[in-house]
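Structure (tokenized):
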């Protein structure tokens, strides 16, 4: 008998959802950064086990949207709550209960799927007793079937978690081949890796203002030629992303290229450009252009 199903990973920004997805599928499919709203689209990561296939869906952090772009992100989250076999609700357990968590909990209150609560980042919690008030607070809601303390970063508690997930999956076919890891095209992952490096190297308002579009993705027998444009919202941000004599853009390009070479298993030639696109977060055409699913005419799932 084979089991399979769709499992969405949800929670507040920065809880560690993308880190968890990468650990669960054993490969980097989603970018990770210590900045809220790193993930902007739903990303599938597929784990194929003996007799079971789990399609995880990583989602943007649940937040109060203030731009058209952020409203689209929240639409993505809402879609990822529909028709799921199971939801994983991730919380940063190094923090006391956050009032902002209420909005996120309200969303899952309206869904039908069973939910597991994952108290993440326990590697950074010195006194385990610190978890007790959180456990009490969340148990009292009566919405969670089970609570797992985990560390996505250090892969602690993930085997128990996988077993608990498989146990709850319905009987079903294997949807994807054994070696299938994600629904994202390499072209989109390349843009994401470039954005990740910028998130790591810049701060304050720059991360939110950055979008990356791959203009060329050309595979030749020896090398893949990639050209991408980094969009920012203001001239000052362009200066930051380029850096003195191009030093910042060079660091971004080199680290993105090295990671692409290791992930794609090929030599990469990467060219980066920086452009100012004022107000892109309110520009529907631009938002469609950075959303690979809408470009490919695909529905979100
Ligand atoms: N100490 C510790 N840090 C973690 C753990 N999991 C994730 N992090 C860190 O938390 C930060 C956010 O991780 P992400 O995986 O990007 O979080 P996210 O929930 O996907 O965030 P958004 O995409 O912005 O919603 C990164 O700096 C991670 O390294 C963990 O188990 N322990
Ligand atoms: Mg994320």
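Design, position by position:
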């Amino acid at each position: 008998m084979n089991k399979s199903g769709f499992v969405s990973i949800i929670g507040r920004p920065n809880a560690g959802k993308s880190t968890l997805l990468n650990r669960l599928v054993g490969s980097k499919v989603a970018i990770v950064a210590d900045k809220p709203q790193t993930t902007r689209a739903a990303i599938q990561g597929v784990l194929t086990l003996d007799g079971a296939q789990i399609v995880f869906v990583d989602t943007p952090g649940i937040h109060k949207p203030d731009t058209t772009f952020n409203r689209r992100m929240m639409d993505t989250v809402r879609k990822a709550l529909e028709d799921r076999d199971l939801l994983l609700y991730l919380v940063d357990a190094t923090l006391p209960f956050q009032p902002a968590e209420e909005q996120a909990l309200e969303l899952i209150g309206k869904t039908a799927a069973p939910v597991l609560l994952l108290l993440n980042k326990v590697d950074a919690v010195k006194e385990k007793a610190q978890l007790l008030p959180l456990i009490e607070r969340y148990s009292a809601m009566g919405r969670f079937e089970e609570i797992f303390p985990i560390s996505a970063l250090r892969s602690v508690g993930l085997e128990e978690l996988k077993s608990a997930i498989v146990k709850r999956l319905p009987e079903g076919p294997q949807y994807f081949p054994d070696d299938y890891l994600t629904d994202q095209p390499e072209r989109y992952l390349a843009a994401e890796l470039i954005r990740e490096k910028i998130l790591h190297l810049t701060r304050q308002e720059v991360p939110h203002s950055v979008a990356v579009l791959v203009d060329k993705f050309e595979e030749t027998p020896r090398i893949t030629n990639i050209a991408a444009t980094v969009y920012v919202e203001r001239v000052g941000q362009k200066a930051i992303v380029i850096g003195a004599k191009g030093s910042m853009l060079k660091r971004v390009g080199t680290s993105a290229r090295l990671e692409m070479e290791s992930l794609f298993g090929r030599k990469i030639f990467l060219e980066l450009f920086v452009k100012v696109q004022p107000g892109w977060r309110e520009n529907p055409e631009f938002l469609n252009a950075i959303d690979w699913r809408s470009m490919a005419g695909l529905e979100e799932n």
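Reviewer-requested clarification: The longest strand covers residues 3-11. Strands lie at 3-11, 43-49, 52-58, 86-92, 115-120, 144-149, 211-219, 224-232, 268-276.
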